[in-house]
Amino acid sequence: MSRSPSVGANGHGVQAEDTRICVVMVGLPARGKSLIAQKVVRYLRWLSVPAKTFNVGNYRRLDTPQPTAAFFDTSNKQGEKLRHAAAEAAVNDMIKYFNNKAGLVAVLDATNSTKVRRKWVRERCDQANISTLFVESKCDDEDLIMSNIMEVKTTSPDYKGQDPESAAKDFRNRIRNYERVYQTIEEEEDLTFVKIIDVGSQVVINHIKDHLQSRVVYYVMSLHIKPRSIWLSRHGESVYNLTGRIGGDSNLSHRGEAYAKALPGLVAASVPQDAHIQIWTSTLKRTIATARWLASSKKQYTTLEWKALDELDAGLCDGLTYGQIKDRFPEDFASRDADKYNYRYTGGESYRDVVIRLEPIIMELERSENVLIVTHQAVLRCIYAYYMNVPQERSPWMEVPLHTLIKLTPRAYSTEEQRFTANIPAVSTYREKGGEAKHQTAEDEVGLGELEIRDIQANEEEEAAEKMSSFDEEVEEVIEKANNEAAHGAIKPAIVRVSTHDGHVDGDNISIVIP
Amino acid sequence: MEDSTADVAAASPRFRRKSSTFIDAIHDMPEKVEMAPAQLYSTESGRLFHAGKIAIATVGLPARGKTHISVALTRYLRWLGVKTRAFHLGDYRRATLPAGQEVPEDYFFLDASASTVLLRQKILRKCREDIYQFFERENGQVAIYDAVNPLAAGRRSLANELAKHDIQTLFIESACHDQRIIEDNVRRVKISSPDEYAGWDAADAIKHYLARINAKIPHFETMEEKELDWIRVCPKQRLMLTLLTAIKMINAGDKFEINNRNFGYLARRIVFYLMNLQIKQRRAYFVRAGLSASNTYMSDDGLSDIGIDYARKMTETLIKHREQEHKQEIQNEEQEREQRSLVIWTSTKKRTIETASFLQDAGYPVRQRSQMVALNPGVCERMTERRIREKYPEEILKHEADPYHHRYPRAESYHDVAVRMEPVILELEREGNDLLIIAHESVLRVLYGYLMACKATDIPKLSFPRDEIIEIVPESYSNRSIRIPIPGLPNDTIPSSPEDIRIPVPPSGTLTPINIGEAFSGNATPLLSGSGSPRRNASPNQDSDHRGEGSMLLVDRALRKSGYLPQNKET
């Protein structure tokens, strides 16, 4: 329905109202400023607060696409002038953005490394009645800086198409030029600021003025920039899935069990040796069962059950099929289609409700390193939407097939996605917008064509399970094949997709899909 | 008020105080496990966010606002559903020493005498035993250990000892360098007890008190320990320009320094909360919106004539009351001071905005907040109670079993309202001005429930009759609430809550915001249809003397009798 709530009427998510905040990044190059900037924007949008990044580097590149380090030398008058013009253009656009009531938060992504520059930004914002929050990332950890340099030289548009070695060297010279004039934020400047020292091992927070600012600081405190990945998987096919029923707390079907057994192999294909992984599941049987082989496969793997990862509560509709819902609650069925994100099942939850309860999960995910989450369709969509910047009107409609492992790797400028398919057949639980309320049976499933499929549309789960067991003997072969593939490392990611953090570009347009 | 119930609890750890009467219940422990107002989920162990057991130990000299922070944090964490309890070491000291006896002069000395060391250990042991009991037997999750903890060595050994019990320690140092704030704290909290500084000149008393602290606690080391998790909170006083006057605001956490070894979700959440916390004396007033033409949730009507009349009278009463309060404060403090500014928050519904119109005309700033829209009644809107009973008999049963968490079809529960209002609650903590909240009763219930630490089960039953303004007076140790009657309202303004969903609430055992045990009942506001004024509709078992009397009048009387309310409080 409403794409982005208008200023002053943000009826959902966090309180924003009449505050307009410019988050001003401060810090030397390669200190993770852009990463923080983009993440803040993504997080706020996920919580329904409209936000946008203004990257001064992008403005500067309009005139000077690939400058050398000398451009950033403070004694270079021409460079100085161009860089100030870029900052000026970014700030002007930002003020326009606020005046058009397009958003509540803007992030000014630049080094802002001197007191004079910070004072200038602050005065411009004061004049436009925008409050400022300075976020400084201060880091002297050589390893971290190096890994950032490596990342930047390979992904930054400034060095596109250049020799990586000379790019790294030039970038280090650029940093040196900044170091000469860099002044860390001091209390005497009387700014509202948060200073993150060595990736959050020390934090100084000064004079936070309103709630939304505190919210941003709270989030920024959770971030780290150590390399890691997040794996997402739905539970294996459940008995309820077979009969098309939603919700409940049913066990895995035989094919679901097969996926649980194949999961360690799938994970092994995409994890560095000896990596520690935390496995998070919901408290429902089907996710715990799905993760149990994986959990016991390596001693570096630890598990945690989260109530907050439980499936969207369908209230009165829990345990019904889409067909039954349509018959019994035709109006609800229609209104859910009309605005799925905000639709709340009678006695249950909406996607918006799920996002609210997932907030602690997101915060904990930001703080953690390698995490593998086995959860449910709606919950997985919400978490995926956060990482891949999927807008609210699309996220509830995303297709996330069963028996597929999604690997997300956050990078400085983007999140990289890989999908690993287990080749274990499962019913599809996907129903597109306005689609039939019909449940897709195993007959429709691609990949099962040569197998004889019996009717599994039974009402009682036991009955269904029983019927499935004979059917399953026949798919045993398929499963074994899949397991073998997994064991021999023959699994290759099915889809690779890259999505930038800053989703003001439509998610689909910027996706690169490599078949 | 520091020597109240906590002393009793400290002296006899197994004694459990019954629900509080006129002060808020922040120092009570709920007797049975139930979901807290804004709790998102429950776990078998009762511990949330996978945060394990956490001890928060305060660090700081007296009069730096440690107790304020402890109590405020307890309130917030409990609201989130985290089982939290504050252990004030001062209470244990007082409870251990014979009445009237002070701690020995060398109590905080590094080279204390043997007998003092023994006494110190005895007090500490008692307090820590209670903390362990809280974790082990009561499934506690956060224990706030409110003590001076002046020395680095002591803090290290505390963290080590707690770690042996699988408890993670987070230190919060309250480091105030602003002499004015310290003196203000001393004035408000430390020398206000009548016996100690009776007959003293305020300035002399402050000076004496601070000198005594310096002599008693000569060694204090600020937190520098790199190997511990800590937060240093520095309150600062700032001049804030508002529409009417310049006011001084004290940000409880104006500056933070954080040493973060392993902050979990909860620790970061605590910082988040502290960022919004103010040390303040500001009052909050709660009033209902006036009546509108249709009084339904969906329609967004303006006020009816009766509603406008109500808005005018409410405004007059409030302004008059605030003037009196101001005079009273000047009298109490023996010094001239400006009246605190007042801001008004309404929901985005017309009837709440229009109820504020007279105040707005008088120059008070009014802010609209979308989160303060009434509880969505869902399918129950415009349905009579009988109709609901006919149509949704199972829902009625479910509702009666858990009126706080139950949602009628397509409706919100009180829990939903509480969760969506969390940002409002943080802003409420941040607001430095006096605050008038004009909202639907369901919203007032939830906000009141936070400020007075009401149990989730009681919140749906709190009553806010239209002919009263409810005032909440913050105090460092607990909040206090007062009702101010609005005189001269016609009868049909007062009765019932026509905006309410007419959900049946069991008539017995219901509560008003401030309840004295079971002295009165029958005040559930969602009225059975056709009944008259809630307060005039006393239940049969009620003492006839109380009939027709505003419940708060009773409370006011009790408060005055016990000396908690000034004698000249209007009735």
From TrEMBL, chain A:
One GO location term (cellular component): cytosol
Listed name of the protein: fructose-2,6-bisphosphate 2-phosphatase
Enzyme's top EC category: hydrolase
Pfam families referenced in this protein's UniProt entry, alphabetically: 6PF2K (PF01591), His_Phos_1 (PF00300)
Family, per entry: In the C-terminal section; belongs to the phosphoglycerate mutase family.
Gene3D superfamilies listed in its UniProt record: P-loop containing nucleotide triphosphate hydrolases, Phosphoglycerate mutase-like
GO molecular function, one term: fructose-2,6-bisphosphate 2-phosphatase activity
Domain of life: Eukaryota
Organism (species): Gomphillus americanus
SUPFAM superfamilies: P-loop containing nucleoside triphosphate hydrolases (SSF52540), Phosphoglycerate mutase-like (SSF53254)
CDD domains per the UniProt record, alphabetical: HP_PGM_like
EC number: 3.1.3.46
UniProt-annotated binding residues for substrate: R234, H235, G236, E237, S238, V239, Y240, N241, R286
GO terms under biological process: fructose 2,6-bisphosphate metabolic process; fructose metabolic process
InterPro entries: 6Pfruct_kin, 6Phosfructo_kin, His_Pase_superF_clade-1, His_PPase_superfam, P-loop_NTPase, PG/BPGM_mutase_AS
Catalytic residues as annotated in Swiss-Prot or TrEMBL: H235, E311
UniProt entry keywords in alphabetical sequence: ATP-binding, Hydrolase, Nucleotide-binding
Residue ranges of every copy of the 6-phosphofructo-2-kinase domain listed in the record: 15-227
UniProtKB/TrEMBL annotation, chain B:
Cellular-component GO terms for this entry: cytosol
Any GO BP annotation: fructose 2,6-bisphosphate metabolic process
Disordered: annotated span: 523-571
Domain 6-phosphofructo-2-kinase: 44-280
This protein's UniProt keywords: ATP-binding, Nucleotide-binding
SMART domains for the chain: PGAM
Designated name of the protein: 6-phosphofructo-2-kinase domain-containing protein
PANTHER family named in the record: 6-PHOSPHOFRUCTO-2-KINASE/FRUCTOSE-2,6-BISPHOSPHATASE, 6-PHOSPHOFRUCTO-2-KINASE_FRUCTOSE-2,6-BISPHOSPHATASE YLR345W-RELATED
Gene Ontology MF annotations: 6-phosphofructo-2-kinase activity; ATP binding; fructose-2,6-bisphosphate 2-phosphatase activity
